[in-house]
Amino acid sequence: MSKDDDSFDVMEAFSSAPVPEELTMQDQRKKRKAEKAKAKAQDKLEKNRENREKKKKKKDKMKKRKRGEDVSDDSDAEDEEGSSKEEGAANDEEGGDSKDKPAKKAKTEKPVKESKKAPGVWIGNLSFSTTEADLKAYFSKCGEITRIKCPPGRNARQNNQGFAFIDFATEEAVAAAVAKSESDLNGRALLIKDSKNYEKTGRPKREPVEGEAVADGGKAGDRIAKKQKNPPSPTVFVGNLSFNTTREAIQQQFEPCGRIRKVRLATFQDTGKCKGFAYIDFFDVDSATKALRAPDKHTLDNRKIRLEYASEEATKKATPWVYRQERKDAEAATEEPQASPAQEERPAITTNEKAKEERIAKKLERELKRKDGPSREGRSNATSGAILANVQRQKVTAQPFQGTKITFD
């Protein structure tokens, strides 16, 4: 700095000032620490990147294997070499202890053993009051029981959840238990299937026992039969039909149920299309009942139709000749004159009684003439209320005072 210049520079003045050794050592430690942290973070980023690449390669390889493509084992060999290098580096760092350690044996895949499941049955539609003791007593005749699994109910009132599993010692016992399907236990029809049968086929159809008749339609048919209002009849009423339904379609739908005498389809006079209902006349009541109880016959032209026994009058119209004869017989019975009973002998009528009867007859004639005869001139038949309503009202006007005025002194 020249003598003539009066400016003062702080950095230039204190650059040569002595710095304590503690501060310099602290600065150096901070720098080394920051460098180590930076290097560590960089290594971590590189390792994460490598791991991501390995995972991506592994996923691609699995996708190719699923598609059935041939995948070379180069990547597997590279992975093994990389892992062996890492293990060797770790052993070198430990001081060569790897030579003393025995080599690890390669893992061999164990063959998967096929699970031998014990023969058993699955039981559904159980009553909640059924216990394990009830099941054991019920199925003890089928064969030796090895295990009963009956999950407990969801509350204290339920002994089960509606199903159970029973294992038997032999397959013959399983077949005997499955044969008991649809039998009753504690008021419920059991559904029994082989425990190895996972197909959802619904409730199996039980074969009828000798001397036992199984109703068509099952429980659904029973519900339909209970809802009938009319007694069983060979004529069935069909409702909720489509306007495009034809006689041929109804005939084809219900021909498998039995012999059909006639299909009476209600149609419009102008278009000839269906009005939405019809009558099917079968030759016997059993065919009509079969059509009524068959659930697969309750759908026509993608519509759910309504079936029920026809009324007595509609059933008679199925045989018009019989219906006409019955009507003729009824009309003939009403037209026949009824035989009047023998007239009892009456005592002789006196003159006073004759005069009284004549007066009563004349009085009745006058009353009839008064009611039926024309009204007199000037006489109105209107009621008093109507007369008052039609009376002309007087107009309200100011009237001059006509009285005497009283003054007080």
From TrEMBL:
Q: Which SUPFAM superfamilies match?
A: RNA-binding domain, RBD (SSF54928)
Biased-composition ranges, Polar residues, are: 391-409
Tell me if RNA-binding is a UniProt keyword of this record.
yes
Q: What is this protein called?
A: RRM domain-containing protein
The family database entries (InterPro entries) matched by this protein are listed as:
Nucleotide-bd_a/b_plait_sf, RBD_domain_sf, RRM_dom
What would be one Gene Ontology cellular-component term for the protein?
Answer: nucleolus
Source organism (scientific name): Umbelopsis ramanniana AG
Keyword Cell wall biogenesis/degradation in record: no
Comp. bias intervals (Acidic residues): 71-81
- One Pfam family name from the record? RRM_1
Q: Where is the composition biased (Basic and acidic residues)?
A: 36-53, 96-117, 199-209, 343-379
Keyword annotations from UniProtKB, A to Z: RNA-binding
What GO molecular function terms would the record report? RNA binding
State the taxonomy lineage.
Eukaryota, Fungi, Fungi incertae sedis, Mucoromycota, Mucoromycotina
User: Compositional bias (Basic residues) at which positions?
Assistant: 54-66
Domain RRM residues, every copy = 119-197, 234-312
- Which parts of this chain are annotated as the region Disordered? 1-123, 199-232, 320-409
